[in-house]
Hints:
This protein is 28% helix and 33% strand. By secondary structure, it is an alpha+beta fold. It folds into two domains: 2-100, Immunoglobulin-like (Sandwich); 121-475, no CATH class. The strands form three sheets. A ten-stranded antiparallel sheet has the order 10-9-8-17-16-15-14-13-12-11, sandwiched between helices. Strands 3-2-5-6 form a four-stranded antiparallel sheet, with no helix packed on it.
Amino acid sequence: MLYNRFKFYLSLSFLLLTYIGFSQVEITGKVIDSVYSEPIENASIYVKNTTIGTISNTDGRFALTVPLANKKDTLIISSIGFKSFRIAVEEFQNNQDVFLYEDVASLDEIVILANPRPTTGNAIVLKAIEELSENLPDSAYLQKGFLRHKERNKLEFKWLIESAITVYDSGYGAKSTEHLKINVDEMRKSYDLRNVDSIFSYVSYRNRISKRNRLRAQDIRRQDVSKQQLVNAIKWNDTRVNGLQNLFQGKLSLLRNVQDTKSLFGEDILKRHQFALDTILVDDGRKIYKIKIDESSDFVGLDTKGMYNEGYKAQGWLYIYYDNYAIKRVEYDLVAASDKQKSRSKRLFGTQTNHKLVINYIEYNNKMYPNYIYYETPKLVNVGLKTDKKVTQKEIDRYNREERYYYTVQEILFTEIIQDRDIVQSELNTKPWNMDIFMSKPYNKEFWRNYNILLESEEDEEMIDDLSKRASLFKD
C-alpha cells in the first residue's frame, strides 16, 4: 500500500514538473548588426506590454523563458540606433540570427524644429533631471532580478556568485537609504577560489574600526591574527567594495538618488559634468538624444569610507527620449584625473578607469524602471612587496603583480516588476531583507528551473567552467 502510494505521488510530481516545463516557451537566438555582421551587445529582448525580458550578451546571444500564456504576444528585439524586430512569440524560430538595421534621425531637422525646446546637451540633461519626478516610479513596487558577481585576474576567474534578488522601493520621492530594501532570495552558484592577501584586508579593517595608531602590513605577523579576524576583515572588504548598497543606496545610483545632498547628478551637476549633444538616434520608433558626458571644473568623488575614492573625471553617454525626456540608458565611467588618483590607480591597479557603470531602463506603465545594471571596478588584493630584507620565493610569489588586484564585475537583470499593493506589502513584511550576496544558501533546483538568467559570453562560459572544475578539486 505504502509503495503504491509512493509511486502515485512520484508519478504526480513528475507530471507536474513536466507540465511546468511545457508551460514555458524558451526562446534563444543571436542579435547581429546587419551592416557590420557583428554581434549587438545589450540589445533588449522582451514581450510587449510586459516585464518579461532579457538582454543579449557580448556575443549577441540571448535566452528567454516566456510563460505559455504569452505565446501569442509580440516579441520585440530592439537596440538604440536600430529598427526593432517584432514577431509573435510562438512564431520565433529558436537559434536564429536576428539582424537589426540602422535607424537614425536627422539632428539638424530636430534642432530646427525644436526652437522652444532645449537644444544644448547641458540644457537637455537639466530638463531630464527636472522630469525625473514624472518619469521614475512614484509609488512602492518590487523588482525580481538575477545577479551575477564575478572576480578574476588577467588569467582566470577567482570568484563567482549567482543569486536571485528582490528589491523593494517605496518610490522616487523617498530616501533610498531609508526606504529601499534588498533581499537575496536564492543562490545558484558560489565558487570562491581567491588568493586573498588577508593580512592587507585585516590591516585595512583594523585601521577602519580602531581608534589606535594606524597599522601597516609589515607590522602584523600572520600567526598573531585568528582565522575569524581574517574572515571578518575579508568580508568587510568585499562588502565595502561590492556590497549592493553601493549600487542602490549610494552615489552610483545616479538617477534614483538625485535628490540626496551629495548626489553626483544633484543641483551642482554642471560643476562635475558637462554634456554635449552628439546626435539623434531612434529606439523602437522613438527619437532619442545621444549625449556625451564630459569633465567639468571639479573632480568627481564617491566618498567611500575607508578608502581614497576621489579625484576622478566622468565620461560616457546618456540616452534621453526626445518626447518626454525620460532617461533610457546611462553609460558612466570614472577615470583618474587628479595627480594623487592617477598615481594611486597606476601603482595599485595598473588602470586609470576605476569605475564603469551601465544602467538600462525599461518603460512600464509610463514609468522608467531599472532593467539592467553593469558595474565594474578593480579590487585591491595586495599592495605589492616593499622591503629591503631577504625574503623567500614564496613571499615573492605572494605579491605577484598578476594577483595585485582583481577585475570585479556585477550584473543585474531585472525580470519582473510587481505593483500590486497587497503583494508588495506582504513581501515587505515577511522577507528578512538581507542584502548580503556573499552568504551561503542551499541550491534550490526547482526555483531555478524556469527563472530567467543572463547568458554568459563564450569566453566567460569557458572560464566559469574551469572555475567550477577547480572548485570541485579544491572541495575534494
